[in-house]
Each structure stands twice: as structure tokens, then as C-alpha cells.
Amino acid sequence: MTVILSRSRRAKGRVVVLPAMLATLAAAVSACGSESTSRAAGAVDEAGAGAEQVFHIATLHVDGKTNINGAGDHSPEPFPATAPKSSGGFIVKAPDQKGEWSVRAFAFHPSQVVVRQGDTVVLNFMGVQGPSHKIAVDGQRDQLALKRGEMKSVRFVADQPGIVRFVSVGKEPTMQGSVLVLPRAGS
User: Fold this and answer.
1) How far apart are CA 69 and CA 5, in angstroms?
2) Location of each CATH 2.60.40.420 domain in the chain
3) How far apart are CA 121 and CA 156, in angstroms?
4) Are the C-beta atoms of 130 and 61 separated by less than 8 Å?
5) pLDDT digit string (tens) for 131-174?
């Protein structure tokens, strides 16, 4: 089963999960199978522990390049008068002598995953783009030092409903994500 959350103009591009949708989302997570474990997602063993949920999260950057003069079949694009200030995760380069300008945003993909309370969560961070990242995960004492071509993992039990955030330190505000922990039925 696939669950799709849509973005709306009123939410200003953010994905919004309404409280009434949580029960539906929780049921969908329970009904889904998991390729990464021998038990179904949301399954509970004899001791009442949740399933193991394994996720692979890539480090990416998205580039937007254009020219104030246009190029070939591409129309001219003026540099924005109110361009946002560059930060670690969002880089804006003003037009050069040829009129070329660019925007780069760093991100995790996927940036949000959903589990059930009691599940063991394994986040496998894969260094795809960006020479290095320092990844911090809520509740974890140590940060992961991740380089391109490497994979480093964090493992924890999602013992409380709520949100566990992860971020590439210094590449905020764009390079952050979360694990949404839904309450297990009867909890």
C-alpha cells in the first residue's frame, strides 16, 4: 500500500499530517510489508517488541543553473532582487561575467520515514553528494562523520511516539529529516 501526502499552498509547501490522518497512516504502516525484515512492518513478536525497520538515506544536492541572458532555447532568467542569503545547506551564486548564476540546496532522500512505537530503527546514511557530512540524530550522543561513497548507520528503538530529527550539521536549514514514530495500538 502506498500512502501519499500532498502539499498545499495554504501549508506553504510543507507536508502537513492532520491528527485525524494519523490513525489512517498508522493503519497503512501496519498493513505494509517490509523488504528489509523477515517480519511484516508493525508486527509484534511474543515479547511485544516491534519489527526492525531499515532505511537507506542518501545525501544529495540539487542544482539550479541558469543565465540572465538566456542560452539556446532557454529564456533569460534575472537574478532575484531578494535572493535568500546563502547558508551551509542553501547556496546562491550571483551572476558571473557571462551572466550565469546558480542555486544549490542540500537534502536527505528520503527526508522522512515512518515507524511504529517499539520498532527497532536502522538509518543507513549513504554519502552520495557533498564531500562530507556530520550527521546528528536526536537521542544519539555521537555524530556520524560521513564522506562520499561511505555508508554509516544509526540503530535505536523508537520507544516513544513523536519525532526523531536528523540533520547534517552546518547544512541547515535544507538538510534535515525526521523519523515519525506513530503510537502502537493499545499504547
Assistant:
1) 38
2) 19-59+106-182
3) 5
4) yes
5) 999 999 999 999 999 999 999 999 999 999 999 999 999 999 99
Cell 485525524 -> residue = 20
| Closest to 120 in 3D by CA, of 18, 43, 25, 50 | 50
Q: Please compute Rg for the chain using Cα positions.
A: 20
135-143 — which CB contacts under 8 Å span 24+ positions? 135/166, 135/167, 135/168, 135/169, 136/166, 136/167, 136/169, 137/164, 137/165, 137/166, 138/163, 138/164, 138/165, 138/166, 139/164, 143/169
The structure's pTM equals 0.71
Provide the pairing of β-strand 151-157 with 120-126: antiparallel
Task: Tell the CATH topology of 19-59+106-182.
Answer: Immunoglobulin-like (2.60.40)
Distance CA 169, CA 21 (A): 31
- Return d(Cα 147, Cα 182) in angstroms, integer: 32
Cα 76–chain centre separation: 32
Identify any residues that bridge with 182 across adjacent strands, giving them in sequence order: 116
